[in-house]
């Protein structure tokens, strides 16, 4: 789930959505989708930069982490060239995996050492050095504890790895490595009760510098970068034994890496593309006389949607009906924009600088195109026409509803027939039947006047009528082609990429472009998730991790159910419904089994219609776009697949889907610091355990609570419980809304836009901690980690906080505070722990201190 970003669009993906949840064009997804991922997942765990989701992803949940780093647009993490509807690829965007952080599966046969393995050797050497240092650190502690006996561990297997201990201090290489990581990341000069984030992450922030290629740098980004290194290795390794799907992924990657041919072809593929969609008036001398008379907005939008998976002015897509999770339906929503959010079109300061750079980007591409058409350069004319395009885009942005007004899916959802759609939203004579029929005819689907559609953007459509009447046909075609081109710039020659780089420097603060191989890895991963996922899993993932994580999920589900009894704001009837929904959640862990089954043809069949050429990267992208558009549209007459994975395996994120009541934990996130079968359970519960709790809680946040255990939008709440839920939520809205982010120009966090993720963060850490305490009651305490004078409760909170270590550039902070459904990393830690009494008890924080305020907020 990662796209190339540039205001083009990523979802992502990361995958809004991706923070536990960023595509080629900025999109404002419905409230129940988090970015950061297309129509199918909203609540991704999300973090800094992985992917972004496409527009209007109905019933989606983004990840735990934001998914898009240094990307802009609707989806900040996915390659602009394509994004698939739920396969989910979604933000939301965007790991180079060295084997030291992966649990490797054993594979027979000899092969040359890879870069990753050489790196592992270096890391093992460093770990040995760290062990020597830590031995000195804990020798004194060993003496003090000489009279203590090692705690007897149960024979469950989960504790057997810690048998190597001295006076209850674990001395295995895994324990030493974990302790070294935790110690390095800390800043012990900070009082934990003053600012636990700085205490936990101060050392990390001191040691890490944001790369010149990135707009943000975090633990998530480091894991993503490592994952990408793994993918590079497997995509470049040829084998005659590869199945068809794998061969196609490698051909696609090879075509992307053929930079010399891309340079040689230059703008030729783009010119053919422009001509196929009616021409670009600004780069034509006779468009008004040769094309304007036959031009049709409905037909052009249909071509963009059906053949290029591009949503401009209107976003039409097919997804699960929110009110009936067993069928698909047509959705109409507001589109994404060329810049990351509507704020860039109106606000001053850094937003104005980006706006000016965006216009310069538009003009630069238009001038290059005119030059390649052998047209005389008329700079004044080009500036005038592109100014008119920006004015149109600004009017569209002004007509869209801000994220704060799109939080209640029950209000957004408006079902009507085609005939009612036409009579309700005439749009200056726009023929809805012609448009929708034009889209669906590409997959041989016919529609009638009584076909039902869901309008997610009634306020936008009401305003769009006036917008369309205010601008000329020429300006609209200029805008449509510009929106198509912006996604393709990254796949063209250096001239085009340089123009993009200048814009991105202003937008993200980045001064150097990513290595091209990374762009290629991200594109292939986002467009062929299951094929690439199979390569990744075979290379790095230990199969036994699936069962271990499944056991953790069961423990945390039970913790959530037990937590319900602590709530006095919810009546018994609503608690019972919540319990039923929690226990009915379906789980997907690691990867879909079929991608590794050699005798199962499902993986090859998924890509059977694709035929790539190593010489035609640009055309390969177009084929992918058309394929994904058609696959999505065909769903209208197909049953809902209950076993569909909403995201690929090679993703560092996690997700929840309201429409499916499904939680997903891809193989990419099942690694340290989140999870390892070799690390202490305090770290596992504080890492992946918290992520699991986060995703479970998404089923009961301000959006997920509107869906029942079967994924249907249905009010299962009593009036009493619903009213009190809103009261409890309002406390968090105010708490997080008071966090002032200086890096974003002193703007306050939006407590409304981030509410769902904040509820999930708070609930996730509570449930994981409760489950960990219960685990300790059953299994006993684990040996201490060397060099760390901390008990296991404190280790739980320390690892939880260090998962969120990260830094932003000011430019990215200004974007993130307007577009990300997750709070900034520091406030995710501070807000959650300020509300949690158990944290203050673990670190003995005085009542009234920064980390133990008098007023605490709690929903779950």
Automatic annotation (TrEMBL):
Residues 192-592 form the Peptidase M13 N-terminal domain. Keywords: Hydrolase, Membrane, Metal-binding, Metalloprotease, Protease, Transmembrane, Transmembrane helix, Zinc. It comes from the Eukaryota. The keyword Nucleus does not apply. GO terms for biological process: protein processing. GO terms for cellular component: plasma membrane. This is Membrane metallo-endopeptidase-like 1. Residues 653-859 form the Peptidase M13 C-terminal domain. Pfam families: Peptidase_M13, Peptidase_M13_N. SUPFAM superfamilies: Metalloproteases ('zincins'), catalytic domain. It comes from Oryzias melastigma. The keyword Transmembrane applies. One of its GO terms (molecular function) is metal ion binding. CDD domains: M13. The chain crosses the membrane at residues 114-138. Its cofactor is Zn(2+).
């Amino acid at each position: 789930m990662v796209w190339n970003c540039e205001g083009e669009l990523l979802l992502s993906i990361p995958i809004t959505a991706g923070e536990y949840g960023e595509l080629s064009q900025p999109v404002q997804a419905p409230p129940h989708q988090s970015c950061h991922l297309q129509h199918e997942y909203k609540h991704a765990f999300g973090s800094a930069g992985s992917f972004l989701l496409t527009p209007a992803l109905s019933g989606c949940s983004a990840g735990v982490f934001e998914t898009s780093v240094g990307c802009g647009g609707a989806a900040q993490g996915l390659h602009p060239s394509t994004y698939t509807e739920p396969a989910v690829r979604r933000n939301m965007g965007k790991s180079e995996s060295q084997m030291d952080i992966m649990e490797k599966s054993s594979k027979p046969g000899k092969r040359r050492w890879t870069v990753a393995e050489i790196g592992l050797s270096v890391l093992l050497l460093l770990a040995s050095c760290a062990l020597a240092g830590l031995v000195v650190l804990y020798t004194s502690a060993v003496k003090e504890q000489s009279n203590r006996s090692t705690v007897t561990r149960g024979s469950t297997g989960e504790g057997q790895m810690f048998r190597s201990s001295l006076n209850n201090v674990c001395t295995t290489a895994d324990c030493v490595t974990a302790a070294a990581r935790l110690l390095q990341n800390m800043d012990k000069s900070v009082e934990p009760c003053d600012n636990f984030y700085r205490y936990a992450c101060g050392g990390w922030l001191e040691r890490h510098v944001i790369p010149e290629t990135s707009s943000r740098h975090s633990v998530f980004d480091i894991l993503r970068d490592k994952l990408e290194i793994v993918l590079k290795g497997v995509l470049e390794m040829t084998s005659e034994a590869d199945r068809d799907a794998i061969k196609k992924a490698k051909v696609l990657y090879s075509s992307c890496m053929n930079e010399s041919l891309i340079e040689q072809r230059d703008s030729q593929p783009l010119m053919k593309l422009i001509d196929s969609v009616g021409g670009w008036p600004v780069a034509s001398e006779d468009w008004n006389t040769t094309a304007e008379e036959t031009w049709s907005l409905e037909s052009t939008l249909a071509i963009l949607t059906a053949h290029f998976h591009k949503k401009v002015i209107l976003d039409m897509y097919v997804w699960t009906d929110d009110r009936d999770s067993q069928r698909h339906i047509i959705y109409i929503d507001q589109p994404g924009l060329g810049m990351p959010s509507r704020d860039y079109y109106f606000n001053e300061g850094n937003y104005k600088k980006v706006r000016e750079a965006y216009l310069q980007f538009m003009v630069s591409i238009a001038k290059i195109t005119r030059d390649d058409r052998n047209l005389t350069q008329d700079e004044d004319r080009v500036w005038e026409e592109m100014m008119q395009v920006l004015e149109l885009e600004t009017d569209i942005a002004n007509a869209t509803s801000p994220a704060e007004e799109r939080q209640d899916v029950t209000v957004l959802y408006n079902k009507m027939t085609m005939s009612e759609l036409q009579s309700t939203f005439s749009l200056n004579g726009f023929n809805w039947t012609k448009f929708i029929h034009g889209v669906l005819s590409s997959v041989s689907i016919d529609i009638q006047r009584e076909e039902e559609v869901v309008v997610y953007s009634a306020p936008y459509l009401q305003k769009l009528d006036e917008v369309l009447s205010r601008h000329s046909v020429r300006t609209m075609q200029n805008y449509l082609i510009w929106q198509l081109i912006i996604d393709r710039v990254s796949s063209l020659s250096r001239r085009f990429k340089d123009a993009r780089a200048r814009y991105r420097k202003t937008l993200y603060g980045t001064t150097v472009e990513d290595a091209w191989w990374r762009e290629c890895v991200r594109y292939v991963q986002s467009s062929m998730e299951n094929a690439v996922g199979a390569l990744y899993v075979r290379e790095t993932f230990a199969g036994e991790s699936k069962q271990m994580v499944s056991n953790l999920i069961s423990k945390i589900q039970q913790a959530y159910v037990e937590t319900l009894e602590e709530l006095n704001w919810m009546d018994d009837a609503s608690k019972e419904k919540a319990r039923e929904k929690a226990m009915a959640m379906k789980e997907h862990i690691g990867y879909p089994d079929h991608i590794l089954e050699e005798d199962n043809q499902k993986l090859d069949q998924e890509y059977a219609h694709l035929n790539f050429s190593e010489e035609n990267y640009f055309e390969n992208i177009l084929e992918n776009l058309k394929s994904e558009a058609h696959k999505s549209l065909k769903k209208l007459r197909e049953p809902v697949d209950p076993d569909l994975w909403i995201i690929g395996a090679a993703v560092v994120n996690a997700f929840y889907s309201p429409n499916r009541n499904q939680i997903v934990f891809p193989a990419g996130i099942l690694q340290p610091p989140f999870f390892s079968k070799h690390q202490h359970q305090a770290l596992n519960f504080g890492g992946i355990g918290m992520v699991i709790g986060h995703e479970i809680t998404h089923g009961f946040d301000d959006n997920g609570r509107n869906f029942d255990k079967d994924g249907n939008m249905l009010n299962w709440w009593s009036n009493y419980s619903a009213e009190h839920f809103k009261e409890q939520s309002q406390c968090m809205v105010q708490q997080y809304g008071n966090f002032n982010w200086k890096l974003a120009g002193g703007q306050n966090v939006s407590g409304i836009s981030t509410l769902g993720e904040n509820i999930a963060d708070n609930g996730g850490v509570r449930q994981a901690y409760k489950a960990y305490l219960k685990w300790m009651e059953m299994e006993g305490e684990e040996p201490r980690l060397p060099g760390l004078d901390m008990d296991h409760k404190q280790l739980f909170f320390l690892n939880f906080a260090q998962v969120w270590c990260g830094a932003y550039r000011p430019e990215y902070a200004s974007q993130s505070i307007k577009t990300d459904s997750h709070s900034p990393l520091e406030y995710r830690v501070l807000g959650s722990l300020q509300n949690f009494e158990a944290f203050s008890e673990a670190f003995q924080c005085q009542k009234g201190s920064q980390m133990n305020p008098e007023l605490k907020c709690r929903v779950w």
